[in-house]
Each structure stands twice: as C-alpha cells, then as structure tokens.
Specification:
Structural class of chain A: mainly alpha
Low-confidence stretches of chain B: 1-8
CATH topology of the largest domain in chain B: Rossmann fold
Strand order of the largest sheet of chain B: 1-11-10-4-9-8-7
Helix content of chain A: 55-70%
Strand content of chain B: 25-35%
Distance between the termini of chain A: 63 Å
CATH architecture of the largest domain in chain B: 3-Layer(aba) Sandwich
Shape of chain A: flat
Radius of gyration of chain B: 19 Å
Largest interface: A-B, 18 and 28 residues
CATH architecture of one domain in chain A: Orthogonal Bundle
Largest sheet of chain A: none
Mean pLDDT of chain B: 90
Oligomer: heterodimer
Helix content of chain B: 25-40%
CATH class of the largest domain in chain B: Alpha Beta
Shape of chain B: globular
Low-confidence stretches of chain A: none
Mean pLDDT of chain A: 87
Number of helices of chain B: 10
Largest sheet of chain B: 7 strands, mixed
C-alpha cells in the first residue's frame, strides 16, 4: 500500500488538506483582511463624524434651542435656533409639496405609458443629468428666476418660497428615479389581472400599481428629504438669514439650520460656534429620523 | 381539417371565430381559425407548446391589444358583434369576458378588496359583503377564508390564490370566463378541486380553458379543439386548428391522424 503522505507518488491518494503556507491560502487571507479593514475604516469615519458632532454640540442641547432666537456675535451666552429650525422645516415642506406630486406623476408616465419610447429615454437621461448638477448652480438658477428684481424673474426676492423651489429642483431627480423604479418593479401580472377585469389604464395605475409601490416611493421621498434638509449653497442664494421669527413666506428673513451652521461655525463668537455644532447635531438627528422612518415604511410592505 | 360541431340539442354560439389569422408584426402566429364556442359549456383548447392556443384565448378578451404589432385578420364575433370593430370598447368587453391566468395573481390587497375590485370599477351600488360572500362560495373558497377576509390575498396557498382569482373574475358577473392553463402552477389536489369547481361554474358561465394536460381536458370539457403547429414554405411555424369536436369524439375516435397521435401521447 502506498504511503498516503507522499504527494509525489501518483498512485497514492492526493492530500486534500489545505496548506497554510501556500500562496493561494495567503492571498485569500490577505484579501479577506483587506476588505474587513476597508469596511472598518468606512465605519470609523462615520463614527468620527457622529461623535465629533455629538461631543461638541451635545453640551448645548436643551429646550432653549427650540424656543430661543439666535444671538448676535456680541452676546456671550444663551440663545437658540427655533426660527432656523422652523425655516428648515418650512423650506423642506415647500420643496416636498412641489417635487413629490410632479415627481410621482412623471414617474408614472415613464413607467406606465412611455416605456421604450424615445421621449422617455430622453427624460430619463436628463433626469440623471439633473441629479448631478451642483447645488450651487441650482441656487444661482433659483436666484435668477425667483429672487432678482430685474429681468426674467418672478421677482419675489429672498424668501422661503425661493428656497423651497431650489430644494425642490434638487429633490426632483431623486423622487422621479426612485418612484419610476418602484413602479416598474410592480410585477406585470397584477396589471394584466386588473386590465382583464375591465379596468382602464388610469384605474389600473391609481388603484393597483401606485398603492403597491407606495412603500418604496416613500423611501425614495425620505431620501430626497434628507438630502434637501441639509443643503446649504442653494439656500444661501435664495433665503436671507435672520435673527427673528419668520412671519412671511415671501419676505425675509428665512433662517435655516444649514445656513446658520455656515454663518456661525467660522465666526469669532464662541457662543455662536457652539450653536453651530448644536445645529449640526440636530441636522444629523433629522437625517437619522428620516432614515428610520423610511425603514419602517418599507417594512410595512407585505 | 374538420370542424364538426354537431350536438344533440341546439346550443347558442357565444364566440364565433371565422377564418381568423393572428399576426405579431410580420410573424403569423395563427392561421385560418374557424371555431364556434357554445354557451354554458366548457371548451378546451389543447395542443403542443407554441401552437397558439393562449394567443387565441387572449384574442377573445382583447388582451393581445397590449402587445406591440398585434393584429387580427378575419372575424371574431361575440353574440354576433365583431369584437375588433372600431366602435367596440375593450374595457366594456373585458367586463363581460373575464380571465384567470396561469400563475395566480391576486392583488396585494385584502381578500375582500381583491373581490370587490371589479365591482367597484363599475360603481356597484349593491350589498358588497353579500357579493363577496357569493363569489367566494361559488369558487369553493368561502369556508376557508370567511374569518379572515381582511388578510392579504397573497398570503394564501397557491390553490387558494387561484380560487381567489376565480372568485375575483366571477364577482363582476361575466358572461364568459377564459382560463389560461389555470392549474399548471398548482399541486394535484388543488387541481382536482378546481376541476370540480368548473363543473359547477359551467351552469352559469361559458368557459374556455387552455390546457396542455390532456387528461384534464378529457375529464373536464364538453368540447375540445386540437391545435397544432405547421411548417410554412419559408421555414416558419404557424398554429392552426386541426380538429374540433365533442370531447369524447376527440379522445376516442378522432378523425385526423395528428389528433390521434397527440391524444395518445405520441408527441407534444
């Protein structure tokens, strides 16, 4: 009987045992370790941002933040950003009211009526381009079309509406793309079932397809909201920061959290800097809450 | 090609196909089909895959309209009316000619809403609870789901889902029910339950069933139409009607040789 441990003997059973020093094994171990390391670094960066914000901003968290107005630079302590919080919520709400209905209707066209047409390919392509347009460019566009008092403009001046429109332009491609994907992923056989029962295309879309896609569409809208709530550049050009409560949709001041961070973070006042950190913390918390809500929404999908 | 429709008592023809040919763009799927579907009986369309039986079925409720390049030559009429006349509204048509599909496709809604969907489309004002109950009883599903009407339709088993789809189709009180291989995705027990159901359903509805299961056709149907594929001069394939007769005749003493070969399992 041949000696089974002699690998060179061709009549012996080949050893199936893994060799710990073969180049193949070492390569596998090395690559696995590398991928783990990369994931750990990504996680570390996120944790670093979160902990930096929490540590620096956490000390100012109190009810005052939501009830008091921002302090001017000379005031050494106290103050909050209740007006900026309202401003952020208001501009985001205007943006949602503008972008979500349009976005969903556009997505319905792309998914239900225009599949494989040249027009919808063009719309699809341009939507993708729009999602890559820098937010400052969107801000300049909104400035030129809504804020300025001269030329081809609505001439509304700096206002919550101008800010809302700018954010809506930023949200629109995200809403359209995720809504179109959500609608397209509704399986075709339920559409056929509806049509087989004598439903018109309108009835099929609004009674069967759209309700089935709502959980995914909600997630897409939440993602778009999370993005819009944190945008700064377009708001700098369309809303005027202020230290008092908002009293009009079409007149300044319309303070927002992101612009507050921009104004206060690099100023000389330590008080303001601390508030900038606190505002950052609140913004991050807003993104976290919307992400959690969108997870819940998708879980409800049967 | 024989199309013997002799029967002992005069039966009204619901759907009359006269020398119809079906095209998808330049591709001819069916050629020269002439077929009379009798009222309140079960007619089975059998034949090997690709012979066009599902295509013909979908012509009857104009579901093929959704396919690009589809057109029909010849005439298909429903109670004497040309189905493909320009003034015909396919939406109205589909409320009278319903369909049950091969793979059960309940809506992602409650069982109740699945069945109520069709009637609500036409603004049904009567007692919906009663209609839902009657439809579920007629499709032999009531006892199993009467306590869980609010449950999602997709949570049922395959056989139950298909009976739900049948209940959904009959809730709109159609004239004809088209069934495209309704049991092919189901287990044998569910299949037999649905076959029993069909015998009761035919008392109220005209049923046309496409099936590739010959034993099912011989168990269930009154009339059987055998389709086959033919090679054309250019090397393409086109479906045509070989023989149409009472089911007993088709299975025991068919006229055509290819029919005899198919029903005895020699091919297909």
């Amino acid at each position: 009987m041949a000696n089974a441990s002699n690998l060179q003997d061709s009549s012996a059973l080949p050893s199936l045992r893994r060799s710990m020093s073969s180049p193949r094994t070492l390569f596998a171990i090395g690559m696995t370790g590398l991928t783990f390391l990369a994931a750990a670094i990504a996680l570390l960066i996120l944790v670093a941002i979160l902990s930096y914000v929490v540590i620096n901003g956490g000390s100012r968290v109190s009810l005052d933040l939501f009830t008091q107005l921002p302090p001017v630079a000379v005031i050494k302590t106290g103050g909050g950003f209740g007006n900026a919080l309202i401003g952020t919520l208001m501009t985001v709400m205007i943006a949602v009211l503008l972008s979500v209905p349009f976005g969903i209707l556009a997505a319905i066209y792309l998914s239900e009526f225009g599949r494989e047409t040249l027009f919808s390919s063009i719309v699809d392509f341009l939507t993708n381009v729009l999602s890559g347009v820098p937010s400052i460019v969107v801000g300049v566009f909104a400035y030129g079309v809504i804020v300025t008092k001269t030329g081809f403009s609505l001439k509304l001046g700096f206002s919550a509406i101008a800010g809302g429109v700018a954010l809506a332009v930023l949200m629109l491609p995200i809403v359209v793309r995720t809504a179109a994907e959500a609608l397209e992923s509704v399986p075709n056989d339920v559409r056929q079932a509806a049509i087989g029962l004598g439903a018109t295309q309108f009835q099929t879309v609004f009674r069967i397809v759209l309700p089935a896609a709502i959980p995914s569409i909600t997630t897409g809208v939440m993602l778009a909201v999370a993005r819009a709530a944190g945008e700064t550049a377009p708001l700098i050009l369309t809303t005027l920061f202020g230290y008092s409560w908002i009293n009009s949709l079409i007149a300044p001041p319309t303070p927002t959290l992101s612009v507050l961070v921009f104004n206060f973070a690099t100023g000389p006042s330590r008080n303001q800097q601390q508030l900038a950190w606190a505002a950052s913390l609140i913004l991050v918390a807003l993104v976290l809450i919307t992400s959690l809500l969108s997870r819940l929404a998708i879980r409800r999908k049967v | 090609m024989s199309s013997d429709t002799k029967s002992s008592s005069p039966t009204e023809t619901v759907l009359k196909t006269e020398n119809a040919s079906v095209y998808y763009g330049n591709f001819r799927a069916l050629q020269g089909i002439s077929l009379d579907i009798p009222k309140q009986q079960i007619t089975a369309l059998i034949g090997p895959s690709g012979c066009g039986k599902s295509t013909l079925l979908r012509c009857y409720n104009r579901l093929n309209d959704l396919v690009k390049g589809f057109r029909v030559e010849g005439k298909i009429s429903y109670h004497g009316q040309d189905l493909y006349a320009p003034e015909i509204d396919p939406v109205e048509l589909r409320r009278r000619i319903g369909m049950v599909f091969q793979k059960p496709n309940p809506f992602p809604k409650s069982i109740y809403d699945n069945i109520a969907f069709g009637p609500r489309l036409v603004g049904y004002k009567g007692d919906m609870d009663d209609l839902v109950e009657r439809s579920l009883k007629q499709s032999a599903l009531w006892d199993e789901v009467k306590d869980k009407l609010k449950q999602n339709g997709a949570a049922l088993s395959g056989g139950q889902q298909q009976r739900l789809c049948i209940a959904r189709a009959i809730a709109v009180q159609p004239d004809v029910i088209l069934m495209d291989e309704p049991c092919s995705a189901l287990d044998p027990i569910s299949t037999l339950r649905i076959e029993d159901l069909l015998q009761e359903l035919k008392q109220h509805y005209t049923i046309i069933i496409v099936t590739h299961n010959m034993q099912q056709a011989s168990r269930v149907s009154d009339m059987t139409a055998f389709f086959n594929v033919e090679m054309t001069e250019k090397g393409g394939r086109v479906g045509h009607l070989v023989e149409y007769s009472e089911t007993q005749r088709i299975f025991q003493s068919p006229t055509e040789k290819s029919t005899q070969e198919y029903v005895s399992g020699r091919f297909g």
